[in-house]
Write a structure and sequence with these properties.
The protein is of the alpha+beta class. The strands form 2 sheets. The protein has a 4-stranded antiparallel beta sheet. A 3-stranded antiparallel beta sheet has the order 3-6-5. The longest helix is centred in the middle third of the chain and has 18 residues. The protein is globular, with a radius of gyration of 14 Å.
Length: 117
């Protein structure tokens, strides 16, 4: 089974829980900061990446600029994986207390690519 993680962070080797990294969870009400999250759905991963981009832009004006785009990483669990209890069982969302190793990245969709003129 392949897992994906959507974010705006670049050049990652690992996706770790917020409790470890100090990052703020985008879905703080629906997320447990002791876990890192991934999904089996590519479309959900891109949706989470876009939510991350919108979150950064709304909280830090000027940070989400032309140099910071949504990314979807292909990840592998660093420990035991469990279904996300805050999401529908059919969502394909999972969490892992140890985090996820980044093993690849999906190409950026055309609508995110900025063409210099």
């Amino acid at each position: 089974m392949l897992f994906y993680h959507g974010t705006v962070e670049e050049e990652l080797d690992e996706i770790l829980p917020c409790d470890v990294t100090g990052f703020r969870a985008i879905h703080s009400i629906l997320s447990d900061t002791a876990y890192a999250y991934a999904t089996t759905s590519v479309s959900s991963a891109w949706r989470y990446a876009e939510l991350s981009w919108n979150h950064v832009a709304s909280r830090t004006p000027g940070r989400a600029d032309d140099s910071q785009f949504p990314h979807v990483y292909i990840v592998e669990p660093l420990g035991e994986v469990e279904s996300d209890p805050n999401r529908d069982a059919m969502s394909g969302d999972y969490r892992c207390a140890e985090g996820w190793a980044v093993v690849g990245e999906l190409p950026t969709p055309d609508h995110w690519i900025v063409v210099e003129e």
